[in-house]
Amino acid sequence: MSFAASVLTLYPEMFPGALGLSLAGRALEAGTWSLEAIQIRDFAADRHRTVDDTPAGGGAGMVMRADVLAKAIDHASPPGDKRPRLLMSPRGKPLTQARVRELAAGSGAVILCGRFEGVDQRVIEARGLEEVSIGDFILSGGEPAALVLLDAVVRLLPGVMGNAVSGEEESFENGLLEHPHYTRPQEFEGRPIPEVLISGNHKKIAEWRHAEAEKLTRERRPDLLGGTPQPLVK
Asked: Any binding-site annotation on 118?
């Protein structure tokens, strides 16, 4: 069974985008996963295909309408569809590698790309949308975030990565950032490859990599070790 992604968007032409290239693109062609980009405006009731309206209570911007989105979601995810329904949103729960692995182990996902000021809360509740954030910053819409999420998921699908071990030794897989990497030439601008990595002693190499991963994590992401993140220095 392949992983089936249905993306609800005002800009279906943004898909597959980068997902049509490299590993994800080859997997898409091979049928390892499928992608359906659905135009939300197709479910609007008026001749102008209106999908948004002014916010209740006043304020700047526009809000995506619950009635239009509900029709789009029901089309993409009819009764019996067990795929999770995700809403890409800066106020969502941060996406983690653990959640990515859960999604990759499932049958797919229905992904709603928010736009404007946001989405009517009633459709979030009525359709059980899981709000997901890819970081503490604001994008012009949910489409780039959906591409990021799908890229993270697709690369974990069986057979997509040539070397499965690669995915097990990356940042966040074991609670640490990834260790530094080196390759030929053995010396670059006076900087040699660390001696331990060319020693042939696999036990020492593993110990060095783990120590370097812990060091990097402590310096850059102490929160992963239970510490307090340090503010960025400007």
From this structure: no
